[in-house]
């Protein structure tokens, strides 16, 4: 199993573990999102630092943005994670603003849960069929 297959499996597990509770309207996920909307915490900044570090590892290992098949998806997520983590570190109050604008318990969280779950299934397919 290649390095990118392992990364795709990690992304799949992460997306499914986030998407299914959102899809089922879990109270724990809602409590976490409510706390993010009130005030950015040190844990959020630490998580964004980890996101940046993992993204740099993914991009530093190999980048295949010009591949002929689906192999460009994981490095693209590495770049997106790098930009997102840097954005959160530089502008922590913007996260609170985005969460309060986008997060609405019920419909939007279920839609985001469905999207995250489908992305998780897509990464499972990538891990076992492409890499």
Strand content: under 5%
Secondary-structure element order, as H and E? HHHHHH
Shape: globular
Low-confidence stretches: none
Reported for the largest beta sheet, the result is: none
What this model shows, in words?
- The protein has 131 residues and is mostly helical.
- It has one domain (3-130).
- Helix content is 81%, strand content 0%.
- The chain has helices spanning 3-23, 27-38, 42-61, 73-90, 92-102, 107-130.
- The N and C termini lie close together (8 Å).
Q: Which keywords apply here?
A:
single chain; 131 residues; mainly alpha; 81% helix
In short:
The protein is mainly α. 81% of the residues lie in helices and 0% in strands.
Mind sketching the topology for me?
Blueprint: H1 3-23, H2 27-38, H3 42-61, H4 73-90, H5 92-102, H6 107-130
Helix pairs in contact: 1-6, 2-5, 3-4, 4-5
């Amino acid at each position: 199993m290649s390095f990118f297959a392992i990364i795709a499996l990690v992304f799949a597990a992460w997306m499914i573990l986030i998407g299914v509770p959102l899809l089922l309207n879990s109270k724990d996920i809602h409590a976490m999102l409510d706390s993010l909307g009130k005030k950015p915490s040190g844990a959020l900044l630490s998580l964004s630092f980890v996101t940046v570090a993992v993204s740099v590892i993914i991009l530093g290992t190999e980048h295949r943005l010009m591949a002929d098949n689906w192999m460009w998806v994981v490095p693209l997520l590495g770049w997106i994670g790098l930009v997102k983590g840097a954005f959160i570190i530089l502008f922590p109050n913007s996260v609170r603003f985005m969460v309060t604008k986008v997060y609405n318990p019920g419909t939007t969280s279920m839609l985001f849960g469905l999207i995250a779950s489908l992305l998780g299934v897509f990464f499972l397919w990538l891990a076992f069929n492409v890499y």
